[in-house]
Write a structure and sequence with these properties.
Length: 368
């Protein structure tokens, strides 16, 4: 197998041909130190995200760069954008896939696309000296974020914290989870972890996805160290009708887009809550807004949004949720993976790939 990728630099040295990298959507300014040690690399970091509709502005911003570092599914790279970046040779993402990249176009343009695993680079780097190692198998930040939202809704964390700071004291009841029904939509790796934690709170777990059988649910339960039958496979209609907490864990695709719509939302109990840490597109936004404005469900916990970052004038920011009988909203700015260790390990892996690419070596975790 040849080790030099087709889109690597020419044999001229970096000193004679400086290379530039654009770092996109680095909201917390984490990335630059991981690339700073690479000789003759010009670094430009952009914290602000340009929306996909701003294609001309994106092209103007990115046209000069031969390397672009991205955070998974923040700035999309459709064919129209890739085809307008003649200097781009190396496109880096985090994770091992990126559904917002047009990979066939990247391949046709000889643009190398590479991801990260989160395990960290193959060689030690001083930038990671104070970073904890990867979590043990079976644990992840998204599951933690999911349960943070569920508990925030059940225990009125946002409301009670605001009340305390405003001089008030107790303002309402918490909701006990023991004996309640947890409905998990999508019983993959993350869904199964969320479901298992639900049993620790004494919840009954019902599960649904388009192809899920009771046999598959039993396999997932046993893999989690629970008895067969702990996760009960039900119809979509039964899950939304009976669950006190609905948590979404499907991969977004054409079949799953809008899987939670008007019918499902209006089937939910008025006392129920909906939590989404997967992808916003799983839910019909207008249907959800309508139900929440009527107080059709008790609350909603969202970590993913239909436009990210959420616009300053978006109704998700400006409407007074939880007042005038509207549903409560607990929202977080897509934090389900923004854990210091994983973010820094991702960027360290990207920096190592930049070095490999400059040397004409094959990059790791190559996608295209």
């Amino acid at each position: 197998m040849p080790t030099q990728p087709s889109s690597s630099p020419t044999n001229s040295s970096p000193a004679s041909a400086p290379i530039s990298i654009a770092i996109l959507d680095d909201y917390l300014s984490i990335a630059p130190p991981f690339f700073a040690h690479i000789p003759h690399l010009t670094i430009h970091a952009y914290r602000s995200t340009l929306p996909p509709s701003s294609l001309p502005a994106l092209i103007t911003r990115l046209a000069p760069y031969s390397i672009i570092s991205t955070m998974r599914e923040r700035t999309p790279f459709p064919s129209a954008l890739l085809s307008s970046l003649p200097n781009l040779r190396l496109l880096l993402t985090t994770g091992t896939r990126n559904a917002s990249f047009d990979l066939p176009t990247a391949s046709s343009l000889s643009i190398t696309v590479a991801g990260t695993t989160g395990a960290g680079p193959s060689r030690p780097t001083p930038a990671l000296d104070d970073v904890s190692p990867p979590p043990p198998p079976g644990y992840d930040a998204t599951t933690q974020q999911t349960w943070a939202l569920i508990l925030a809704l059940a225990n009125n964390i946002s409301r009670d914290s605001a009340a305390l700071h405003s001089g008030a004291w107790q303002t309402g009841f918490n909701t006990g989870l023991a004996g309640k029904v947890l409905g998990v939509v999508g019983l993959g790796r993350l869904g199964a972890r969320v479901a298992k934690i639900g049993t620790a709170f004494g919840m009954h777990v019902v599960v649904w996805s388009a192809s899920l059988t009771q046999e598959s649910a039993d396999t997932q339960a046993q893999a989690a160290g629970l008895p067969a039958g702990t996760f009960r496979a039900v119809s979509k209609e039964e899950l939304f009708r009976t669950a006190d907490v609905v948590s979404l864990h499907l991969v977004l695709g054409e079949r799953s887009r809008g899987v939670v719509g008007e019918v499902e939302l209006r089937a939910m109990k008025r006392s129920a809550v909906l939590v989404n840490t997967a992808r916003a597109g799983l839910v019909d936004e207008e249907a959800l807004l309508g139900v929440m404005r009527e107080g059709g469900i008790a609350g909603v916990g969202l970590d993913v949004w239909w436009e990210e970052p959420v616009g300053e004038k978006s109704v998700w920011r400006t409407e007074r949720w939880g007042e005038d009988e509207k549903s409560i909203l607990v929202g977080t700015p897509h934090m389900g993976y923004v854990e210091e260790g994983i973010m820094k390990r991702w960027y360290a892996e990207q920096a190592e790939n930049v070095e490999r690419w400059i040397r004409g070596e094959e990059v790791t975790n190559r996608i295209v």
